[in-house]
Design a protein that fits this description.
Elements (H helix, E strand, L loop, with lengths): L3 H19 L7 E2 H7 L6 H9 L12 E4 L4 E3 L5 H13 L9 E3 H4 L30
Parallel strand pairs: 1-2
Antiparallel strand pairs: 2-3, 3-4
Length: 140
Amino acid sequence: MVASSDSEHLRQLFKAVKAVIRKIPKGRVATYGQVAELAGIPGGARIAAAALKTSVAEDQLPWQRVIGKAGKLRGRIAIHDPVGAAIQRELLGGEGVTIGDTGLVSLDVYGWVTAGPVRDASPRRRPRSGSKRRASSSRR
């Protein structure tokens, strides 16, 4: 069971991710990792994905603008469900984003470039409790 403080922290992370997604301009895309970074969650691509997965229609998110990373200059449609992937492809195409046959998108052309952080707050991920990582001095 998730403690209420953990649940509230997760809500704040999701809120920050959704705030960033709402700012992605039409005709541009951002990767899950980029969204997480801009929301103040470095290395939090999976948190960004979870925020999208739990979103509802009332959130009014331009979800189609968030894609997976497929290299330094390429992104890709990361939805494994063929129906969802087709919907994302159609929505992005309607915004003028060109998508290759294999679902690849040029981040050079369509990637969202920001001048800096766009988050409303800095939620930061909490360190995992019970971490197995030990201090370097104990390894001697």
